[in-house]
Design a protein that fits this description.
CATH architecture of the largest domain: Alpha Horseshoe
Strand content: under 5%
Distance between the termini: 75 Å
Number of domains: 3
Largest sheet: none
Helix content: over 70%
CATH topology of the largest domain: Serine Threonine Protein Phosphatase 5, Tetratricopeptide repeat
Number of strands: 0
CATH class of the largest domain: Mainly Alpha
């Protein structure tokens, strides 16, 4: 990038007009305009003064990479402001800047995305737009920038879905990795939905269950963090939210969540105890042990169905659950909670 563009960037960043900069440098406004349009260049003797005015080093004045990234970021922020540009004018603005900064992957990605969005909004505007979008995204999937590569695969899979090239759509979807904002499972459902596949509800339910199971793997860390910070109300909010989703939306068969419900109810019991709500604390501890019992019974059913040496394995499974609950009691720091759980445990016949 030539120095004129860098001067333009720092002048705008400092909210200065060409005339203000010219006055401080002792040159004319026309001279500044020529610099910024790369028609002439500042004399070497002026470089230290320019640096001082912008409060940067001379090296920064020639740091093309930093300035270029900042300029492109500003262009993209600008073009995504709906108050300034509608979709068609945004495309014209990006095309103009792409001529000035050719081969810039961030600009190319943004313009390919806008082509696709306009095609999706107005399919009859021009088929050329979607072809242009495909060409750019196919180039960008090989980008060294992993975010650009993954997001290009994401949009390309959606485009192929729209134009009924399902083999390519599903193939690209399989290559997607989890990145910020990208959800390969959801993309897969979108492709199927847009192309008349049946049993979409089955796919959604499977993914919903998977999501809730995944959330539970984070629960113990969330609980421990809130507990250490004495944020007991937050434990109650998040735990009740999780239980509510399972109870109200999973359907009749909640057996796969017996273990999760047992643990979360136990944690809620402690949180209620900490906020001096003894009645709700008791209720949660009882629920915890009841779901632990259900989970233990489910373990035995699985053993009965699939394994030999049933009696021995039943005893192992039963003892394992009992030991697990006893460990929770023994390791708890609150004597009253220990006594409470020990009492509830004697009330439950495993």
């Amino acid at each position: 990038m030539k120095i004129g563009k860098i001067i333009h960037y720092y002048r705008k960043k400092n909210n200065m007009t060409q005339e203000e900069l010219a006055f401080r440098l002792g040159v004319s406004g026309a001279t500044i305009s020529k610099w910024e349009n790369n028609l002439s260049y500042p004399e070497t003797s002026l470089l230290p003064k320019i640096s001082d005015i912008f409060d940067i080093s001379i090296n920064q004045l020639f740091n093309n990479d930093f300035v270029l990234v900042s300029i492109i970021d500003n262009i993209i922020d600008d073009v995504n402001d709906p108050k300034k540009y509608d979709l068609q004018n945004a495309i014209l603005y990006l095309e103009k800047n792409l001529l000035e900064y050719p081969e810039n992957e961030n600009l190319e990605f943004e313009i390919a995305k806008k082509y696709f969005l306009l095609f999706r909004k107005k399919p009859n505007v021009s088929n050329d737009l979607i072809k242009k979008s495909i060409n750019i995204f196919e180039k960008l999937i090989n980008s060294k920038n992993k975010d650009i590569s993954q997001w290009s695969k994401h949009f390309l899979s959606l485009i192929y879905s729209r134009v009924k090239d399902l083999d390519n759509a599903f193939n690209l979807n399989k290559q997607l990795m989890l990145a910020e904002g990208i959800n390969p499972k959801l993309d897969n459902i979108i492709i199927k939905f847009n192309n008349g596949y049946i049993d979409i509800d089955k796919d959604i339910k499977i993914n919903l269950i998977s999501l809730l199971e995944e959330y539970f793997t984070y629960w113990k860390y969330l609980y421990e963090y809130y507990y250490k910070m004495q944020r007991y109300e937050d434990i109650l909010i998040e735990g009740l939210k999780y239980i509510s989703v399972i109870i109200n939306y999973i359907g009749k068969d909640k057996s796969i969540f017996f273990k999760q419900l047992s643990y979360v109810y136990y944690d809620l019991g402690i949180a209620y105890y900490k906020v001096n709500n003894k009645m709700r604390s008791d209720e949660c501890f009882i629920s915890s042990l009841l779901y632990a019992k259900k989970y233990d019974e489910l373990d035995r059913e699985i053993i009965d169905k699939f394994e030999k040496n049933i009696v021995v394995k039943e005893e192992k499974s039963n003892c394992s659950k009992l030991e697990e609950i006893k460990a929770l009691i023994e390791n708890n720091e609150e004597k009253e909670i220990k006594d409470k759980l020990t009492y509830f445990l004697t009330r439950i016949k495993f």
